[in-house]
Amino acid sequence: MSLSHKQKASGQKYTASAALIYGALCWGVIWYPYRLLNDIGLSGVQSSLLSYSLALLIGGMLFWRRFNCILHVPTSAYWLSLIAGWTNLAYVLAIIDGEVMRVMLLFYLSPLWTLLLARVWLHEPWHKPQLLAISLSLLGAVLMLTNGEWMWPWPQSTSDWLALSAGIGFSLTNVMTRFSTHLTIAAKGMLVWLGVFGLSFAVLLWQSGIAGMAFITASTFTSYVTITFLVIALLLVSATLLVQYGVTKIPAIQASVLFMSELIVAAIAAYFLAQETMSVMEMIGGCCIIAAGILSVSVGESD
Q1: What is the CA radius of gyration of the chain?
Q2: What is the pTM of this model?
């Protein structure tokens, strides 16, 4: 490889890393406006439906010239839409009802799931530090879920289950995104937003039927609510597009670990905005999960 090609590849890696860190920062604070909306009576599903509707609208305006290409994606791409949709919806529902850092750390078991999925789909090799990472991830999960009491059931609440499933979905989305090199960034972004919108709509119909849509009235959209939704939608659009770019350019494991910068932002925000703290055992479990993430990428960094 020539020097210019190496410089270009290095530049792309740094740009992709910065894109992923930005996405992580957005997701580290996006839980707060969702909680504010929940406090005034809008559920997580309702807020997701409206915020992702707005994200689709913004995306449509940004990519209207490419709309024909976006429409003609292969059928397999809709699996990406479905899984990414569940990931984002489950995350929002978990973060509204659960403790922020507990949800975040259970979500960030994703390097464990990514290791397994990247091995099967992308044929990325395993190394001893990564195998140790699996053990540390599992230990951290047990400590987090049981608070050190070692009893069943390990997931102790609905938010725990949602956080775990969102983490698995996030890993699967990362691997599928890296595998789907034939899709444009615009197509991937629109598929993610469409997935959350479609699932939110389906859940509302399942819960309350058509009557469940009655909350969408002119009185709902006060200036406060409108600005909140606009902020969420702008964060969603920018973070999704940059994350899709990032996970396309760097290995799936590295992508998952870079996202861990979200934990720092979330911990600070949870302390000052929600006055939430963690137990000692949860902190130990969280440290195990973070260490596992670092180990999972250590080989790739040293190569």
Answers
A1: 19
A2: 0.80
